[in-house]
Design brief:
Helix content is 39%, strand content 19%. By secondary structure, the chain is of the alpha/beta class.
């Protein structure tokens, strides 16, 4: 048997990394619908409990570095996203960035909270109406974190579901109706559909049309922020007003907070 000659390519396509929860059935689908074909998305999974409580969310912290280390060692990520909104509120943005950087080579780290804050700044949003699927103890931590970042939560509603397997199966009509109802509770500048596992992407333009407000979701803002770091724009037809926001694309290193 003879050895075949080969050459190596000079450069790889831009690569983005994602840490998805073991229980998440939505985030990969959403990100692949939004990212352009020029981007490679590499995904790892982190163990996560089926019941969603502050304790189970915090339990992901010691698993994060190992989950990231399972990504290809030779990959050079422009950005890596941690795909859990409530987990970020529980663990903390800076700690997540520290753990991710310890496990792989990436220029930037993001997650839904810092991505949401950046998206709100791009849209000049200060008052948010939030729809969450989770129980009060989980939602309260998220609200407190967003308040600390300068966002006022003017209205809030939750399905108060404690099981992750049920969250992904909440009917789209219920999410749509809930978003519209929460937006009518008080004056707000935008609606945020929280949770990476909640099926929201296909509802964004419909809810925007019904309410006249920008609609943001955990997966939408995370994809947007990852693409800003990579210096690329979304696939044509990506839903939502967020893509109309005029804000420079980034290629620089970031800290945990945007």
């Amino acid at each position: 048997m003879s050895a075949l000659p080969y050459t190596l390519v000079d450069r790889m396509p831009p690569q983005l990394g994602l840490v998805a929860l073991q229980s998440d059935e939505t985030i990969e689908r959403d990100l692949r619908q939004l990212l352009p074909d020029s981007i490679e998305l590499l995904v790892t999974r982190i163990p996560s409990a089926e019941d969603v409580t502050p304790k189970t969310l915090a339990a992901m912290e010691p698993e994060l570095a190992n989950a990231v280390s399972l990504l290809p060692r030779a990959a050079q990520f422009t950005a890596l996203g941690y795909g859990c909104t409530s987990g970020t509120a529980q663990i903390g943005e800076e700690r997540i960035a520290e753990l991710v950087h310890s496990g792989c080579h990436t220029r930037a780290v993001t997650q839904p909270i810092s991505a949401l804050v950046a998206a709100c700044a791009a849209l000049s949003v200060r008052r948010l109406a939030i729809v969450s699927p989770y129980v009060a103890a989980v939602s309260e931590r998220l609200i407190a974190e967003l308040n600390s970042r300068g966002l006022h939560i003017s209205a809030f509603g939750s399905f108060e579901e404690g099981q992750e397997a049920q969250v992904v199966r909440i009917a789209p009509d219920a999410v749509r109706s809930g978003a519209i109802a929460v937006a009518e509770m008080a004056e707000c500048d935008a609606i945020f559909l929280s949770c990476t596992n909640l099926r929201t992407l296909d509802l964004i333009e419909d809810v925007e049309a019904a309410t006249g407000l920008p609609v943001l979701s955990s997966n939408l803002v995370l994809a947007w922020d990852m693409m800003r770091h990579a210096g690329v724009t979304a696939r044509p037809g990506a839903p939502g007003r967020l893509w109309e926001a005029e804000i420079p694309l980034r290629n620089t290193e970031s800290s945990a907070k945007t």
